[in-house]
Amino acid sequence: MDVVVVTGAGQGLGRALAFQWASSAYPVIAVIRNPNQRSELEAFCPLIEVLIADITSGDYSDLLRQQLQNRSVCLVINNAGSGSQGRNLPSVTADQLVNEFNTHCVGALVTVNTALDGLRRAKKACVLNISSRRGSLTMQAEGAALGSQCSYSYRIGKAAQNMLTLCMTDDLQSYGIDVYAIHPGRVATKMVAAEACFTAGQAALKIFESWQGDNLLLRQLFSLESEKVLPW
Asked: Which of 40, 11, 39, 6 is nearest to 24 (CA)?
């Protein structure tokens, strides 16, 4: 059976996504960075295979390729993400920007490139990038992030990932592979807690249902919270 690859699957939304697909009988390769998170994932369901790897490291592609073992891949979910404390110009650093760009954009690119042969083997395949309203240039220009305390690095990393989504859409459509960007809403995780409107499990279920029902939109940034298209 085709496998599903989920990055950032050690906690929060990523773990809920791995659980959701595995509980729906899909084999899942859960990419995590912290080995301490392995046992909970493997105990949940025998369909979950854990790959311990840092998606920004030089050996990540080789490790993922070995784990895939020439199997078909029906879905890649680029969920891995992080932020920083650089919430204003005096506190932001170059290292923060590089780290978040590598996590949100380069890591997603490497994951898809490594899984590309597997995606092409599947009868139907797609890539799902877990984006954010904070990556919207239009909303940023309109002042939507003022007072949000969202870091420079997170906003810039997600904006870069959004452009990656559109670039990959152009490239992969010739293979019949669709690429989507979704803002999952304000999910109750360590990164977003105070204003959350979904639990991680609720968000994962909504994402699964949207994927299963072919309700995702190409070349759009779709918000599952408002069920509306957000401006790029």
From this structure: 6
